[in-house]
Amino acid sequence: MNETAMNETAMNDLLDDVRAADVSRRSLLTYVVSAPVLTVAAGFGVNLATPSIAHALPLPLTPPDTVDYYDIGDSIVQTSLPTMPLVTLTVGTDGRVRLDLPRLDSGTGVATAVGMMVAEEMDVALNSVDVTSADARPELVFNQITGGSSSIRSFAAAMPLMAAAARARLINAAAQQWGLSPSTLWVVAGVVFAPDGRNVAYGELSALAATLPLPVNVAPKPVSQYKVIGKRATRLDALDIVTGRKKFTMDQAVPNAKPTMLRMPTQIRGTVVRVNNLGAVKSMPGVIDVVVVPTGGSIVPNPPGVAVMAETFGQAWTAANALDVSWGDGPLKGQSNETIQATLKAAILPLAVPPLGALTVEGEFQFAAATHAPLEVECAIADVRADSAEIWAGLQTPIVCQQSIAADLGLPQDKVKVHVVPSGGSFGRRLFWDPVQVAAQVSRLTGRPCKLMYHRANDVRHTRLRPPQYHKVRATLLLGQVISFEQRVAAVRLDARHGFGEMFSAAAGSAPPSVQQSIGNLAYEEVFFKTMVASPYNFGVGTKVLTPVPLDMNTVSYRSVHIQPARSVEEIIVDEIAKKLNKDPVAFRLEYLRLERAKAVLRAVAAAGNWGKAMPAGFAQGCAVHQETRSFTACIVEIDCRVPTDARVTRATIAIDVGTPINPSGIEAQMQGGLAESISLVLTAGLHIRDGLPLEGSYSQYHFARMKHYPKDVQVIIMPANGGAIGGLGEVGLSAASGAIANAYARATGTKPRSFPINFPIDFTPFPPGALPDPVVVPL
Amino acid sequence: MPNQTFNVNGQPVNVDAPDDMALLWVLRDKLGITGPKYGCGINVCKACTCHVNGKAVTACSTRVGDVKGRNVTTIEGLATGTTLHPVQQAWLDYDVAQCGFCQPGQIMAAVDLLKRTKNPTDADIDAIQNVCRCGTYGRIRQAIKAAAAMMP
Q1: φ, ψ for residue A89 (rounded to 5)?
Q2: Strand, coil or helix: A580
Q3: For chain B, which terminus, N or C, has the lower number of CB atoms within 10 Å?
Q4: How many domains does chain B have?
Q5: What is the ipTM for the molecules in this complex?
């Protein structure tokens, strides 16, 4: 199949989806118009959502790369589309516009960006738009998963049309009220005006508008008329955040929900054999109940532990540490970073034999497990009754959470209400709902609403990890040209049993929860890898192959899970090839990059970042370039390695091309966040697994960057809108920054970085396995 | 159980709690004041930063018995009515927050710094230990400097 045919097939599939969506929309409208406010449940008919297929085709010499044509984001965009008409946009009688967004905003800014699309098309001020997180809505099927940097890509297709339809309906209501033609009316800031000076606010029109038929042939604004999109906007929840009013899961006022903490085993997935002092702990101050979390779990296993419910978290923590528990081993007993890396190395598939006379540039790389470590630990509230249940949590996949909890509790799915609460970070962690499983079981067993919060030590040690990885790379050079680039990756298998966010695909990826590496999960994982990891270079025969290794570890996707390691490795090898060929790293990249947009971001940072400037001894620049989820980035950093064990990134220049920028402030924020995360993952943040448990247990041990590690000179260049489809943003910011940091480190120190994080001593006293640290008291 | 009397955000409060209970749990679990966040419990992430008599403390590591008769200020008490503190305003102006979870603590730490040092240097700002997992450090630095310029 050639590229054109592939694009046409994708387009036809999309058209079919839109036609199917149109049918659902019509049936839905008969329901929603009975509401006293205007609820627009659809918008697209003739105006087809823009497919996110890359406009620029690869150069003629380019080897085929799946991700140029179809990536994981495309799959979510396309599977989301059929149920987009079910997403509701409401205009209240108070004139406020409310979008109940079936996505989790964990800090990424998706709610603000989608709100901007609404404000733009409806001609209302952004501060009159409320974007809430929709409860689990199983009728949305594949359209309620937050992941793959796909949220804005998905909504860019549907939201402008839905909002434009709402605006048209409100104008029609005003026209009917005044006996004028709709075409003579206009809107300013949510008020409809007539040429004779009459005006009426949206809020006063919403009831009438709700009775009117959906307008046809509504077109969104041309880009040239944009007033909101492309301009800097502050997060919608910024005022709530700075005043302390933003309510996270543990801040929800659920009546009688009682603080609950866990003691967890001495090893990952260890077992609770026996609690030896249950009675004594139950009688401790403030303690309400102590229960062992039962085994089970309908898609993934319940996390093991002993739960203590108390009047306060402090009392639950003290009592949890007073428990005397006999623990059983977990499946990683005896395993350490060293044994895991040896297993991964042994699983690597062999590389091809280079031709006679060729030069090779090779490397073997290892990446320790990493933890997401969002500031908000794993937590959930569950209120389980005899015939119903209600859940509050930050969830990237609320539908499959609802389905699995219903199955766990033996309740019909519609008796489990799942509220999605914006979370304090996620980075992929909340694709699974482990704390909901625990809270539901504790609530069921205690007969009380359970407010479960992991201690940070458990959050680091016992939740899901970015899988450890081992990479083997060989680039082959013939007559001064790169003719092949092979990369073999072995990684601890990535748990993907959340599927596409609902039971059908989750169940397909699932076997009994005790079985980690089912055929379904393996297939998913390889599809994820194939649809995420690509090379931006024209390196002749290029292959990247993943071998998932079925070690029984808690894993989950992570921001750019396979991509950040795989692409960082490639960027490191690219520098080493350039060096071997005596070429400047930027010039070499420009020679071999396949796509003009990749070259453009690299040129932008090379100019703005003063590439090639003289640096004192111990300092160096490093560069890298990256493409992911249809976005392009390049980065140049400067590093201070005078003390290599305390390497500091001192300056970063980053360019980002997302095709069509929505919120420049949000785009910069994601790139700045990607930089902080890259500084951490490349230089200092990793987990030492020893005898089946990470030694790290808090931020004093897991070294995520702090203020002093973040460079004081950071410039983010947002490439102007270039007509490209909107690309993903949440993950693309890692790989160029990571590659640039590693390359700068290599140049400053004259070493070849091969093991990440680079500076990885055990510079702390680990908390005892199976215990929580005692509270710290700082006298005033 | 001992009775603990102190002021929170200008209001006298009276709670039954043992002296050694951490202020964080008294605020969150007994008084329903949820601005200070739990992030570690052991004084290393600083997400629960509040002020006691105007000085920054981590509520997770401060015994409630130690704040008897003192004035506790949380993020909820920082603004004067609807007038934001200059640090809060700077946080809005620079669109600092991403997820927002660490930001109450970041803001309280910044206010404390500006009380001690009218025009903080980069080194002063580098000494702030509060973890931000989203990576808003650059904007925090800018906002602190802007707030310093705004403050009387």
Answers
A1: -125, 120
A2: helix
A3: C
A4: 2
A5: 0.99
Q: Which of residues 58-117 of B touch A (CB under 8 A)?
A: 58, 60-63, 66-67, 70, 74-76, 78-79, 84, 88, 91-92, 95, 97-104, 107
- Do A775 and B61 make contact, defined as CB atoms within 8 angstroms? yes
What are the structural domains of chain A? 3-229 (3.30.365.10), 249-332+378-453 (3.30.365.10), 337-370+465-756 (3.30.365.10)
**CB A313 to CB B42 under 8 A?**
no
User: Measured between alpha carbons, how far is A132 from A151 in angstroms, rounded to an integer?
Assistant: 14
* pLDDT tens string A213-231: 988 889 999 999 999 999 9
Chain B nearest CA to A160, separation (Å):
24
Last-in-domain residue among B17, B44, B77: B77
Residues B73 and B90 in one domain: no
> Tokens for A489?
């990756």
Q: Which of A14-23, A65-74, A524-533 has the lowest mean pLDDT?
A: A14-23
Q: What are the distances in angstroms from CA A582 to CA A491, A609, A624, A705?
A: 33, 22, 17, 34
Put simply, the answer to whether A377 touches B128 (Cβ < 8 Å) is no
Query: The CATH number of the domain where B43 resides is what?
Result: 3.10.20.30
User: If 0-12 CB within 10 Å is exposed, 13-18 middle and 19+ buried, where does residue A27 land?
Assistant: exposed
Q: Across the interface, which of B41, B134, B139 has its CB nearest the CB of A775?
A: B41
* Spatial CA neighbour of A240 closest among B2, B99, B70: B99
Record the tokens describing residue B130, joined without a space. Answer: 């509060």
Sign for the CA dihedral angle at B69, B73, B78, B81 comes to negative
Strand partners, A624: A635
The DSSP call for residue A136 is: P
Over residues A283-338, the pLDDT tens digits come to 999 999 999 999 999 999 999 999 999 999 999 999 999 999 999 999 999 999 99
Give the minimum alpha-carbon distance from A725 to chain B in angstroms, rounded to a whole number: 25
Query: What is the predicted pLDDT for the residue at A232?
Result: 98
Q: Cα dist. A519→A346, A493, A533, A724, B115 in Å? A: 21, 12, 21, 37, 60
Of A146, A311, A707, which to mutate for an interface test with B (greatest number of B Cβ within 10 Å)? Answer: A707
Is the pTM above the cut of 0.80?
yes
CB contacts < 8 Å between A and B, how many? 213
pLDDT tens for each residue of A426-439: 999 999 999 999 99
Q: Do B71 and B123 have their domain in common?
A: no
What's at B75, amino acid-wise? I
Of A244, A453, A706, the CB nearest to B131: A706
Q: Note whether B92 and B64 are same-domain residues.
A: no
Is the CB of B29 less than 8 angstroms away from the CB of A238?
Answer: no
Nearest CA in chain A to B35: A244
- At position A717, the amino acid (one-letter code) is I
The closest of A341, A694, A431, A399 to A407, measured between CA atoms, is A399
Instruction: Verify that B13 and B46 share a domain, yes or no.
Output: yes
The DSSP element (H or E) to which A381 belongs, if any, is: strand A379-384
Structure tokens at A346: 């042994």
Q: Check: CB of residue A385 under 8 Å from CB of residue A447.
A: no
Q: What is the CATH number of the domain that holds B142?
A: 1.10.150.120
Tokens representing A613? 């400037």
Q: Among candidates A506, A500, A471, which has minimal Cα distance to A488? A: A471
Q: Is A279 exposed, middle or buried (0-12, 13-18, 19+ CB in 10 A)?
A: exposed
Residue B104, domain extent: 86-150
pLDDT in tens, B119-142: 999 999 999 999 999 999 999 999
Same domain assignment for residues B40 and B90? no
Is B52 part of the contact surface with chain A (CB cutoff 8 Å)?
Answer: yes
Identity of residue A725? A
Give chain B's largest Cα–Cα span: 47
3-class secondary-structure state, position A17: helix
Nearest residue of chain A to residue B43 (CA atoms): A776
